Amino acid sequence: MQKNYVRNLEVNAAGNTGFKLRDMVVCGLLIAMVFISTAFINIRLPFSINGGLIHLGNVALFLSAIIFGKKKGAIAGAFGMALFDVLSPYVIWAPFTFVIRGVMGYIIGSVSHAAQRNGEKALWNWLAILLGGVWMVAGYYGAEGLIYGNWISPMTSIPGNLVQIAAGAFGAIPAAYCIKKFKLAV
């Protein structure tokens, strides 16, 4: 009886067995990892006009995408960081964050995993984060312009976004290498 219950949980809404119970559990853990590292390991920027925050959620997002791929990277980034926004004073950012971080995780996971199938590794992870970072900077620039109705002040957020991306890359790429080398991922 228990086997049928688990098997039924593994069938998604379309009737396919593409996203299994194990995938849901892994995604939940990745979302929690992104949320916790965003919410509890952060620094407010004193020089940004509209606030600004540097956090280590990017390390968790980049790790999720590099190790688990585009789908789980997108889910972890979108839900983990949007959940932070919903539970913080930044609630107005939640819909934008959901899309921006979801696409960012998808980009990083896509580039990283495509390269790894061809035997390439670290250099492509850097490229993946660079491309995801360009998307993030452009996305938050546009979101801030829409929210505040000003297209000049969002430029003050760019340095903080670049620091977030760099910190995330320098934390995630060596960690991903170690996790993959020692086969620590599920």
From TrEMBL:
<feature type="transmembrane region" description="Helical">
    <location>
        <begin position="21"/>
        <end position="41"/>
    </location>
</feature>
<keyword id="KW-0812">Transmembrane</keyword>
<feature type="transmembrane region" description="Helical">
    <location>
        <begin position="122"/>
        <end position="142"/>
    </location>
</feature>
<feature type="transmembrane region" description="Helical">
    <location>
        <begin position="98"/>
        <end position="115"/>
    </location>
</feature>
<protein>
    <submittedName>
        <fullName>Putative membrane protein</fullName>
    </submittedName>
</protein>
<feature type="transmembrane region" description="Helical">
    <location>
        <begin position="47"/>
        <end position="68"/>
    </location>
</feature>
<keyword id="KW-0472">Membrane</keyword>
<dbReference type="Pfam" id="PF07155">
    <property type="entry name" value="ECF-ribofla_trS"/>
</dbReference>
<keyword id="KW-1133">Transmembrane helix</keyword>
<dbReference type="InterPro" id="IPR009825">
    <property type="entry name" value="ECF_substrate-spec-like"/>
</dbReference>
<dbReference type="GO" id="GO:0016020">
    <property type="term" value="C:membrane"/>
</dbReference>
<feature type="transmembrane region" description="Helical">
    <location>
        <begin position="162"/>
        <end position="179"/>
    </location>
</feature>
